[in-house]
Amino acid sequence: MSGHTTPHFHNDAGHQSIAIGVKTFMCVGANPPFDHPHIFLDMGEESETVCPYCSTLFRYDALLPADETIPVGCAYKNQSEV
User: Fold this and answer.
1) Total domain count for the chain?
2) Could you give the CA distance from residue 47 to residue 2 in angstroms, rounded to a whole number?
3) 2, part of any domain
4) Across-strand partners of 57?
5) What is the CATH number of the domain that holds 65?
6) Is residue 1 very low, low, confident or very high in pLDDT (cuts 50, 70, 90)?
7) What is the pLDDT of residues 14-69, one digit of tens each?
8) How many angstroms separate the CA atoms of 24 and 21, rounded?
9) How far apart are the C-alpha atoms of 7 and 4, rounded to whole Å?
10) In a domain, 44, yes or no
11) Rounded to 5 degrees, what angle do the CA atoms 70, 61, 52 make?
12) Are 40 and 26 in contact (CB under 8 A)?
């Protein structure tokens, strides 16, 4: 998965919602080894979606870059990328 182009996000801290700057992305749940299947999500015309595995609500924020989140720190980085 190193060098993936689709942004991946996690919710280790258990936030109710996470603002992201993209509408298509992967949710990994928590960081490994506590992750769930890495699921592709697409908001389409909507501005929010819920992950069917971990129930995290993702909200689109056009002002955020693809690799930033609110709250901060929810962009997943593979260990080979750190």
Assistant:
1) 1
2) 28
3) no
4) 17, 50
5) 2.60.260.40
6) very low
7) 999 999 999 999 999 999 899 999 999 999 999 999 999 999 999 999 999 999 99
8) 9
9) 7
10) yes
11) 75
12) yes
Residue-range definition of the domain harbouring residue 70: 8-78
In terms of residues, how long is the chain?
82
For 16-75, give the DSSP string.
SEEEES-SEEEEEESSTTS----EEEE-TTSSEEE-TTT-PEEEE-TTS-TT-EESTT-B
Helix (H, G, I), strand (E, B) or coil at 9: strand
3 within a domain of the structure (yes/no)? no
Q: Which two tokens stand for residue 63?
A: 């002002």
HSE-CB for 69 with a 13 A CA cutoff: 22
Q: pTM, whole model, 2 decimals?
A: 0.89
CA–CA distance, 44 with 72 (Å, rounded to integer): 24
Q: Which residue has the tokens 């769930």?
A: 36
DSSP code for 81 = G
User: CA–CA separation, 79 vs 82, rounded Å?
Assistant: 5
